[in-house]
């Protein structure tokens, strides 16, 4: 079924729907929100990666325009990812030059395209729902904790950091306590006013057509100018710092080309494979999460996404950008802003380009604290209390993996945390599967117990342990009826257990009767979509 979805999604673009007024009315304001969120994150991640600031903006532009156009996802937004900063920093240092690193980015893009062609994106369909929900809630909590210092004017950690242990030798909690001791009241006032605008502005229906985040930025710029020269004044590092380009020659001089002479360097290939794998995993996780947030509940083609990300990384490597992934922070901001189609992601890339080329000086008047307020609200919506209540009502088999994922992601990083959550989630899946291979019923007949075991439609290897324990524990002097008439498939190991039990049960005075159980079963074939519809 996944293959059919991918094929259908790649079968051609219905461009008309992207320009419908009802969609553009939502996508244009959403693109502004995503632009405002992406701008400091692109700069912060580039700074933390030891790369030129221009490379961060360039990656955001390519992620928006190129990946947005090629992707089958309507709401996902690609750009430089915080999860790759350590890999990128070590790679630039270890490979000796930024140009050699760009070759690794280009090769990583080629590998991602190959992964998409061989349908490796299908693994994205096997992430448990509770783990994805936990990842979203964890990202929300991280946004709240990480953006609080920026909101009060303490900018020691770079924008976009998601790891618990920070590069400044602090962690998430010590960073918060450090911020409390070094509050800038001007930044705090701007952040507080921004949050109030984000909450109450949408309630005024007649003027709500102006996006609240845009009003937040305008008010932040005005207050920043008013506070200048006073005790509430902001320092330079508390504003956006986009590179200023003074001429066309200077602009084109910012682009870098990969060092193709290093193609035989083994370390380049190791870096490329590492980037391709990590970026692909983060992309698949983000894609699954965005589909859960999508109010229309569309399903994004995972293999096409890998191809789109690969194309983006090839172009990024060719022009001097950073590796990119689908990013859950920007994507969730896109969803919360009301976007409906991929035009929002594409246009946000255009805004980044225009800001860099036309109005960099004006952009540099935007206080980081007002942008932090936008991310604080995004985090609140991702980690809302209602989500925890909803997961609790689903039962412990959903709630435990959900909470474990949250804790693991918050105290480590995205991939490690999700990995821990997956282990716990798979444990509960196996536990549930092993408990439900059969229906167990006991009858009394003439002072003799008759135990009926009716097997499930499919009895897999995972049911082996549960069935073996059940049969071994049967009381003596009973009659056991094992009914497999409803079973389409019984695993060979389980069949062996059943026949061995029948052969040896007489030693305990147990009579075993088998109903509808064959000597062997063929593995059930996967139905195609057309076969399913006929059935």
In short:
The chain has 535 residues and is of the alpha/beta class. It is built from 23 helices and eight strands.
Description:
The chain is built from 23 helices and 8 strands. The protein has about 525 residues and is α/β, with parallel strands linked by helices. The strands form 3 sheets. It has a 4-stranded mixed sheet, covered by helices on one side. Residues about 1-10 and about 530-535 have low confidence and may be disordered.
Q: Span between N and C termini?
A: 15 Å
Radius of gyration: 28 Å
The main sheet orders its strands as 3-4-6-8
Give the helix proportion (percent range).
55-70%
Residue fraction in strands: 5-15%
Structural class of the secondary structure composition? Answer: alpha/beta
Shape: elongated
User: What is the averaged pLDDT score?
Assistant: 87
What is the chains' assembly state? single chain
Regions with pLDDT < 50 over 5+ consecutive residues? 1-12, 528-535
**Number of domains in the coordinates?**
2
Distinct helical segment count: 23
Biggest sheet, in brief?
4 strands, mixed
Record keyword descriptors for this entry.
two-stranded antiparallel sheet, 23 helices, disordered N terminus, 535 residues, Transcription Regulator spoIIAA, 61% helix, disordered C terminus, alpha/beta
């Amino acid at each position: 079924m996944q293959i059919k979805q991918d094929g259908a999604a790649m079968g051609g673009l219905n461009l008309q729907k992207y320009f419908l007024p009802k969609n553009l009315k939502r996508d244009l304001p959403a693109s502004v929100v995503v632009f405002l969120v992406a701008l400091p994150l692109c700069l912060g991640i580039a700074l933390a990666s030891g790369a030129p600031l221009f490379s961060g903006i360039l990656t955001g532009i390519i992620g928006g325009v190129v990946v947005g156009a090629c992707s089958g996802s309507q709401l996902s937004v690609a750009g430089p990812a915080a999860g790759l900063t350590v890999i990128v920093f070590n790679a630039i240092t270890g490979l000796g030059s930024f140009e050699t690193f760009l070759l690794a980015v280009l090769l990583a893009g080629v590998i991602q395209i190959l992964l998409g062609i061989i349908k490796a994106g299908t693994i994205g369909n096997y992430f448990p729902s509770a783990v994805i929900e936990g990842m979203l809630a964890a990202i929300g909590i991280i946004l709240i904790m990480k953006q609080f210092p920026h909101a009060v004017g303490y900018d020691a950690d770079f924008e976009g950091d998601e790891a618990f242990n920070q590069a400044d030798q602090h962690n998430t909690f010590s960073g918060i306590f450090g911020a409390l001791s070094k509050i800038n009241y001007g930044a705090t006032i701007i952040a507080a006013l921004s949050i109030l605008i984000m909450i109450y502005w949408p309630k005024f229906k007649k003027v709500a057509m102006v996006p609240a985040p845009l009003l937040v930025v305008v008010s932040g710029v005005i207050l920043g100018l008013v506070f200048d020269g006073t005790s509430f004044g902001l320092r330079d590092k508390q504003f956006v710092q986009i590179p200023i380009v003074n001429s066309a020659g200077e602009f084109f001089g910012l682009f870098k080309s990969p060092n193709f002479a290093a193609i035989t360097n083994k370390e380049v290939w190791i870096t490329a494979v590492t980037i391709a794998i990590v970026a692909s995993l983060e992309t698949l996780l983000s894609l699954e999460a965005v589909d859960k947030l999508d109010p229309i509940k569309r399903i994004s083609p995972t293999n096409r996404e890998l191809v789109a990300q690969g194309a983006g990384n090839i172009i990024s490597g060719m022009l001097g950008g950073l590796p990119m992934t689908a990013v859950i922070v920007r994507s969730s901001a896109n969803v919360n802003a009301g976007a409906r189609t991929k035009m929002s992601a594409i246009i946000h890339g255009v805004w980044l380009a225009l800001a860099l080329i036309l109005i960099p000086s004006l952009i540099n008047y935007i206080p980081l604290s007002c942008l932090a307020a936008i991310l604080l609200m995004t985090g609140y919506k991702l980690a809302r209390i209602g989500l925890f209540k909803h997961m609790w009502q689903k039962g412990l088999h959903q709630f435990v993996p959900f909470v474990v994922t949250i804790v693991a992601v918050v105290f480590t990083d995205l991939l490690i945390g999700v990995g821990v959550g997956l282990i716990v989630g798979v444990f509960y899946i196996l536990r549930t599967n092993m408990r439900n291979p059969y229906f167990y019923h006991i009858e009394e007949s003439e002072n003799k117990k008759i135990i009926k075991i009716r097997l499930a439609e499919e009895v897999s290897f995972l049911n082996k342990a549960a069935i073996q324990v059940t049969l071994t524990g049967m009381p003596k002097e009973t009659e056991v009826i094992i009914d497999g008439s409803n079973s389409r498939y019984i695993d060979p190991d389980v069949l062996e257990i059943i026949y061995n039990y029948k052969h040896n049960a007489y030693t305990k005075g147990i009579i075993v009767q088998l109903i509808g159980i064959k000597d062997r079963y063929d593995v059930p074939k996967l139905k195609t979509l057309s076969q399913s519809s006929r059935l």
